[in-house]
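Hi everyone, sorry if this is the wrong subforum. Our group has a chain we'd like a structural model of before ordering constructs, and none of us has done structure prediction before. Sequence below.
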Amino acid sequence: MDSIDKKILQALQTDCSGSVAEIAERAGVTQTPCWRRIKKLEEMGYIDKRVALLDQKALNLRLTAYVMVKTSQHDQQWLTKFSDGVHDIPEIVEIHRMAGDIDYLLKIVAEDMAEYDRIYKNLIRVAELSDVSASFSMECIKASTELPLTRIR
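Answer:
Right subforum, don't worry. Here is the predicted structure as tokens:
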């Protein structure tokens, strides 16, 4: 990966809705080589997908909860049941398996506390959990989908 590839990636993660010509201009190359590089970056797995980021508040999803899950079961059968179950709950937008005191961290977006309660009730039916606790975001100070590219070689 060279500096042009990094500029292309930065341009795409800042705004991928532009034309190849616009991305090429931001990266300092012409259109055809830019298009080829984008295709190669996709093939190599650097570009996972290109999406539109929606405004959570405009969609009336005003509540963000971070749910900490503990389990006493760590076998493959339980993990499959849990994984399949949480994937079927669309309001759970992130799931992380953690190291430390908490086994899983989930990010949930919901309209309000009543909707969160419905989601919570669905969550606890998914698999046997030993503890579920939540923290609610009062204000988002920083959120970004842009990954740092400074250390990529």
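For your construct planning: The chain has a mean pLDDT of 95. The radius of gyration is 20 Å.
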